[in-house]
From TrEMBL:
It comes from the Bacteria. Belongs to the SLC41A transporter family. GO terms for molecular function: magnesium ion transmembrane transporter activity; metal ion binding. Homodimer. GO terms for cellular component: plasma membrane. This is Magnesium transporter MgtE. Keywords: CBS domain, Cell membrane, Magnesium, Membrane, Metal-binding, Transmembrane, Transmembrane helix, Transport. It is found in: Cell membrane; Membrane. The keyword Zinc-finger does not apply.
Amino acid sequence: MSVLHKKSARLRDEERARLIWLLSTDKAVTSSLLGKLTLAERYDDGTLADDLAEVEVLVSHLPPPDLADALEALPYDARNALWRLIADDKRGEVLLEASESVWGDLIDKMSDRELLFTLQNLDIDEQVYILQHLPQDLTARLLAELPAERRARIRQMMRYADNTVGAIMEFEVITVRPEATLAAVQRYLRRLGKMPENTDKLFVTTRNKLLLGELELQTILLNDAQKRVGDVMEGDPVTFQPHEEAEKVARTFERDNLLSAAVIDADGKLMGRLTIDEIVDVVYEETDNDLRRMGGLSNDDDVFAPVSKAVKTRWAWLAVNLCTAFIASRVIDGFEHTISQLVALASLMPIVAGIGGNTGNQTITMIVRAMALQHIQPGSFSFLILREMGVAVINGLVWGGIMGAVTWWLYSDPQLGAVMTLAMMLNLLMAAMMGVIIPMVMVKLGRDPAVGSSVMITAITDTGGFFIFLRSGDDFPDVADGPPRSLRGISAIATRPARTPMARLLVPTVAATVTSITSVSDHGLRCSSAGRRLCQLKVLAATITITPASTAIGIFAITSLSTVTRSRSTTPAARVETRLRPLPISTLTMV
């Protein structure tokens, strides 16, 4: 039989889950605590009394972090009922541990005096954290009630931005002089009786608070008591300044395995310290905020918020997604005639777009993560582009080949299967390329690459995937009555003249593509009615294998910016001759 300690993690989890279950499922308990008990609920007084007693015991047993989790997991009425049961001397710590999204529901029910009493038991840095998230008029009233010295320190910390070291540093530090002996330091610590939380070192300063070094606790214990602090201290400690970004400081803590570090001003004087507690909070908040922004949610969005508030916070993101979806729909609408002639295209389009979106999101996730860890340097851009496009080529050939074979088997049409393979590979190439470019462009513009990248890559891969696939399979006539179906779309792309100024600006980009297509043409690949399908597959294979990355960029750019020229035979019996011709751009010499 297992025995659980009263503060074991498992027992705390069970008690927290039980508390949430009682308050969220038993409406009578919530109504009773809020003084809204109905007549029908009064008849069940026996069970209600037991449940109320159990709730009170659970609230008294659970520590502030568990009570904060319970508050976040409860709807509005149950949340306020639980808040009423929390002792006044514990409310400050609970409020500090809870998410800012639930603060409004709790603070609205409190008077200024109650809120001031709640803040009194907290450290200065904790008071500042709460005051920074309160309305300005309420903050001003609370500051006016605080002692002058504490009010001055709080105002000093509130000058720093939320995401800086100055906003999260602690003022409680233990300092010693370099001329003191370790025995004197030990006596000093005993007289203090209590050290600040997460204290692993003392700071060595002059009388003017100039930081000279740091003295670890294990150094005090393991060295001769008669040695002086200046002889055993670390003279070159890791320090931070109050205006540094907290997220970058968190990386230093992780890299150097720090538990605490000194915060100094421009003159080198000790202002306070940072501890691992604050750093963990910074990492958690940054991760949580990034996840919310990637999903189009505000930082204060609450899962139990009223419907009206939840709707307002999601409008902007839905509007962006609606616009991108509308663009993709217009691309499909432009090929209505093509889809009506070959309905199989409609069932295959989502596959091309979906696989491109997945590839793009994988690339973006990897690039954004590498940027967050500072693994990407300016000179690595070309390498990343080539690497991701190489991965896309292999994936496109493998999975595009599989889907091409499946399409051939389903529709008994090898030409459609070849078009499916080509479209998948081109869309994967485009997705990989944009997955690298989009985050880097957003960083150049000073925007967070984690926000909006997924929407942009989805829009591009959906729109581009539909366009590439439908354009490759455009104008599918009967095999007996016209040119080859799969080759027709590709030849139409390859024979488009660059008539617009923008197309002429893309000459360097499409040069390699023209070389590839011209090479196929120069080998004299001609597709007549006899053995036409085998010939088409050879042309497609040659086009795919020769410089696939350049082909992807070139075909997509020309498809978007040029006009189509087609040629038809006058009689069905006439010999149909289709040949890939070089683009009529006189400035291209890479043949």
